């Protein structure tokens, strides 16, 4: 159950930084036209890639997954190994069940951007994809690698918990969901997991508390209706 980060801010950040980079570079190296031209070309590539990625995200959201992947590939042609393009492509591939291809995208992202602060969601997609093809142990290993790099990123704990839960390691899943809410107390899905696993074990007091917290965060919708019936 992969939860996705908002992408628009990432694209905007990339575009704004590239524009600033161009301006400063031309100012500093204006007398060296070769250097200035090269730096300007790099900035243009980033902007082209960002625009293509944005188009791809819109296509993904419209359910046009194959067309979205084409846009991400075009972005990667414009800016080779662009991290955002690799992430979005891996996410779309995973969405349509092409998990082996998604895993390869994630490997490329980690290989070319090993210390990037935006790698956190790559580990979520990677772990999900491994879990989907039945490689639970490898998925847990990837989640743990992600946690080592991003120890406060709640979605890695949550998705690790989903993997444990789907493989019937319920105690370990519960611990993961509990860790997730220590870093994001308002993550409704983690409270939902805590509630249901406690209910399964007939631990009704913590179950009711978790259901109640869930409903404070998410008072409407299909999950809310189901959880109201459980209290």
List the helices and strands and how they pair.
Layout: H1 8-29, H2 33-61, H3 65-78, H4 83-95, H5 99-112, H6 120-132, H7 136-149, H8 154-166, H9 170-183, H10 188-200, H11 204-217, H12 222-230
Helix pairs in contact: 1-2, 2-3, 2-4, 3-4, 4-5, 4-6, 5-6, 6-7, 6-8, 7-8, 8-9, 9-10, 10-11, 11-12
Count of separate DSSP helical elements: 12
Biggest sheet layout:
none
Instruction: Let me know the number of strands.
Output: 0
User: Which spans of ≥5 residues are poorly predicted at pLDDT below 50?
Assistant: 6-29, 35-39
Percentage beta strand: under 5%
Coarse morphology:
elongated
Q: What Rg, in angstroms, do the CA atoms define?
A: 21 Å
User: How far apart lie the N and C ends?
Assistant: 24 Å
Structural class estimated from helices and strands: mainly alpha
The residue fraction in helices comes out at over 70%
Query: Residue-averaged pLDDT, rounded?
Result: 88
Order of helices and strands: HHHHHHHHHHHH
Note down, in words, how this protein is organized.
With 231 residues, the chain is an all-alpha fold. It has a domain of 85 residues. About 13% of the residues have low confidence. It is built from twelve helices and no strands.
Properties at a glance:
0% strand; 231 residues; 12 helices; mainly alpha
Question: What's a quick, concise take on this entry?
Answer:
This protein is mostly helical and 231 residues long. The chain is 79% helix and 0% strand. The protein has a domain at 1-85.
